[in-house]
Structure formats: C-alpha cells, structure tokens
Specification:
The chain is of the alpha/beta class and 482 residues long. The protein is 39% helix and 21% strand. The chain folds into 2 domains: 7-251 and 456-476, Aldehyde Dehydrogenase, Chain A, domain 1; 256-450, Aldehyde Dehydrogenase, Chain A, domain 2. It is built from 15 helices and 22 strands. Helix 4 (82-93) crosses helix 5 and helix 10 crosses helix 11.
C-alpha cells in the first residue's frame, strides 16, 4: 500500500472538502495499492481561485525564457525520477514496466523539454495596413486550462497538454482518470520541487464524470483540453457552450491498417501486431481494422494469428514482460462483450478470445485476439473496443480498400503497407485521418502534430500546432499620424 495521496491546490497537499477517498487498484493483481482524495465542487473552486491568482500574479511576471527554464527543469527532474514514476504508471495501469520506463516516461519528459524551448519563441507579427498605422499582433495565453486525461497513457497525455500550456503562460488544473491518478500526483510533487509558483500546476483527483463536469461548468476555467471517449467529448462540448470555453478534443478511433498485395509482408506482419497489441490495444490510434488484399488475406491472417498466439501475458512489473493486463475490470468486461458479439455475428475467431491467466488466478489479463471473415457492417468493425481485438477485413482493389478504410465515423489514424511509392502517396491523400503511417505504425514524435478528423475530435496535440490552442491573438493599432 502506498501512502494516501491528497489533492494539490496552491502548492499545498490537502484533503478534499468532503474528506472522501477512493481506492486505486493494481489491475494485474486486483489489489488496492493506494488511496487518493476525492475532489468536489468546493475543491474545484479553490483550485480555480489559486490558478487565477497565479495566472495574474507571479506566473505573469515571469519572462517567457524564465517560464521555459522551469518547464525544462520539470522535464529534467521527471527523468531523474523515471524509475519511481514508471513503477507507479505500471502499478495503476497494468502496462509492462519496460514500456512505462523506456517509452512513456521519456516521451513525457521529451514533450516538456520540447515546449520549454518554444516558450520564448511564440511571437506576433507586424501587419502592413492601409493608412498611417503601426499594426501588430500579440499572442497571449488563454488563462486557466483544465487538462482532463485518460487512463491508457496517463502521464504522457498529461505532458502533451501541460507542456504547451505552461510554455505559453497558461496555468493548469490536471484531472487524471480515476483509475490512474498516481503519476499525475507524482508530477505535482515534481512541480513543487523544481519551483513552479503556487497555483501554476494543480492536481485534482476523483470520479471522472462528476469532477470533469465541475471543471467544464466552472466559469473560471477558460479552456478544456481533453483526451478520451467520443461520447464524453460530445458532453464536454455541450457543457462548455454555456461559458464559451475554448476546447480541444482528442477522441476515439477505429483506425484502418491497409496491407496491399505488393507490401513487404514480414514488415506488415510486425506492424499489424504492434498496431493492435502494443499497449494491450488500449491505444486511441490502435490499428483495430486490418484491411488486407484478398489475394494474400488468408496467408497473412494465418501468420498474424500465429504471432498473436505466441504473445504471453506476464507480471507487468517484470522487466521481461511485453504484454500486461488491461487497465480495469470494466475494460476487461467490455472487451469480452465485443468478442462475444463478434462470434454471434459470424466472425471467425482465429486467435485468443478469452481471459488470460499468468498463474496467479488474478488480474485483468486478456489474450491477444484476432477475428477473420469480418464484414464492414459487423459491430467489431464499427465500434471502438479499446482492447487487444483485431478485425481482419478483405478488399478486392485499391479503391475498395480506401472506401472501406473511410467507412467509419472516426478519423484518428491510418496506415498503408506497399512497395509502390505512388500508391502510398495516393492512399495517404485519400484517407480521412489525422495521421497516416506508410510502412510503419504507432510512430510518434513531439515535433509532429497528432489529432483527429470527424468524430475523432479537433485540435492538435504536440508540435508547433498545439501552441495555437493555448494562445489567443490580440491586434493592436497605433495611429502614427503627425
């Protein structure tokens, strides 16, 4: 058991106004590993007041370069504590410690370092206008940002929002998912250590819907940055309308992974495996729809199923483990539901399809699962499962592949595998997705924008484009007439 964690408000660790706490479970053991405070409306009021005071006071008085130095220190200290923070990420999420330590934590630190470098480079422009005027623009911070993040990459997705927000002069109230609050709290501890002024970065933990609604409805919150499910994103849009908050939404996906007949099939097999089974399939951009040319489909799916059967779940805290547990009982039940529906609708199960046992009889482990003979109308081809379940769909020609890829309300990511450079660029232009990978999958970099088309949301995470969502433009006119 970890010590009980409290709310971070104004650089002070506090109990929630009600005194209520909630358990944090280790999904690999089903045991309680800690407790965190439950924030309510009164706590949101206190956090917003502290954030506003920081935004208009000490944080505003710092130069852009000084802000950048503090964000850089945040990144450096995070890497100094990477072992400790990675262990927390694994404890509450179930991902292998190797992923947490060598992928997620370094990527989060890299994101913060990237935006630290941007802090003194966000500039306005001088505009030539009619008349004797000096006309220029200023890029100014929006204000109090509520960052609401999910449970699949808890710290990394927080960094995607905190980095650009702080670099541009905003202040942040971070609300982690109720399943995975531990690394958000650890980041709050680091923020105090490196000297962020009180109120600049605060952490509120508690049940998702209630706390999230309180932040969305609060008139003192100027922007919501959200990553999560599409249904919740729609609710945030409705809730933000009353106060006309700025919002950015990175939502769900049902990403197509297209394998053409001329592809390097060994590379495509590795990419298809990574595309759906990395992160236990709990990845918004997971390549959950495998579209394969009819002429190679049977061979390809057989080999992919064989690869899936060789993947063995293990103790996430073991450095040798490469496939961990799902993040919660609710997610385990959801995955099983979709597997049952797929069987009922006539899809052919060729790998997995059941709960996995690592020898303890505990944990929310699920076998890597592959379905063949899936039609575009089937439920597993339409709805986001957010788990290690792959739907293999065949196509007859390139145009049908593109049509089937785009036949979804989502548009977060997509991929195409081919040796033909003309086909690659043709397909990339035709796919309705915010990210298109060619002969690779699940590749990210802080310098490259990430976000969705259609029901996968709007706005972009990472890159210089994210800065636009944390600043507003002011135009200044100066009469120079003599």
């Amino acid at each position: 058991m970890l010590e009980q964690k409290r709310l971070l408000i104004n650089n002070q660790w506090r109990d929630g106004a009600s005194g209520a706490v909630m358990d944090v479970l280790n999904p690999a053991t089903e045991e309680v590993v800690g407790q965190v405070a439950v924030a309510e409306a009164a706590d949101v009021d206190a956090a917003v007041a502290a954030a506003r005071a920081a935004f208009e006071g000490p944080w505003a008085r710092l130069s852009a370069r000084e802000r950048g130095r503090l964000v850089s220190r945040l990144a450096d200290r995070l890497m100094e504590k990477a072992d400790e923070v990675a262990r927390l990420e694994t404890l509450h999420n179930g991902k292998p410690i190797s992923e947490a330590r060598h992928v997620e934590i370094p990527a989060a630190a890299e994101c913060l370092e990237y935006y630290a470098g941007w802090a003194d480079k966000v500039m306005g422009e001088t505009i030539p206008v009619k008349g004797n005027y000096l006309t220029y623009t200023l890029r100014e911070p929006i204000g109090v940002v509520a960052a609401i993040v999910p449970w699949n990459f808890p710290l990394l997705l927080a960094a995607w929002k905190i980095g650009p927000a702080l670099a541009t002069g905003n202040v942040v109230i971070l609300k982690p998912a109720p399943e995975t609050p531990l690394t958000a709290i650890a980041l709050g501890e680091i923020a105090i250590e490196v000297g962020l002024p009180p109120g600049v970065l605060q952490v509120l933990t508690g049940p998702g819907a209630e706390l999230g609604q309180a932040l969305v409805a609060h008139p003192g919150v100027d922007k919501i940055a959200f990553t999560g499910g599409t249904a919740t994103g729609k609710a945030i849009m409705r809730g933000a309308a009353d106060t006309l908050k700025k919002i950015t939404l990175e939502l769900g996906g049902k990403s197509p992974n297209i394998v053409l007949a001329d592809a390097d099939l060994d590379a495509a097999l590795r990419g298809a495996t990574t595309g759906i089974f990395y992160g236990k399939g709990e990845v918004c951009a997971a390549g959950s729809r495998l579209l394969v040319d009819r002429s190679i489909k049977d061979e390809f799916v057989d080999k992919l199923a064989a690869r899936a059967k060789k993947m063995v779940a293990g103790d996430p805290l073991d450095p040798k483990t490469r496939y961990g547990s799902l993040a919660s009982k609710r997610q385990l039940d959801k995955v099983q539901h979709y597997v049952d529906v797929a069987r009922e609708e006539g899809a052919s199960l060729v790998a997995g399809g059941a709960r996995a046992d690592i020898g303890t009889g505990k944990g929310y482990f699920y076998q890597p699962t592959v379905f063949d003979h899936v039609t575009p109308a089937m439920t597993i081809a339409r709805e986001e499962i957010f788990g290690p379940v792959l739907a293999a769909i065949e196509f007859a020609d390139l145009d049908e592949a593109i049509a089937r890829a785009n036949d979804t309300p989502y548009g977060l990511a997509a991929a195409v595998w081919t040796r033909d450079v003309k086909k690659a660029h043709y397909v990339a232009r035709k796919l309705q997705a915010g990210t298109v990978w060619v002969n690779t999958y699940n590749v990210y970099d802080t310098a490259a924008p990430f976000g969705g088309y259609k029901a996968s949301g709007f706005g972009r995470e990472m890159s210089a484009h994210a800065l636009e969502h944390y600043t507003q433009v002011k135009t200044v006119w100066v009469d120079l007439s003599m």
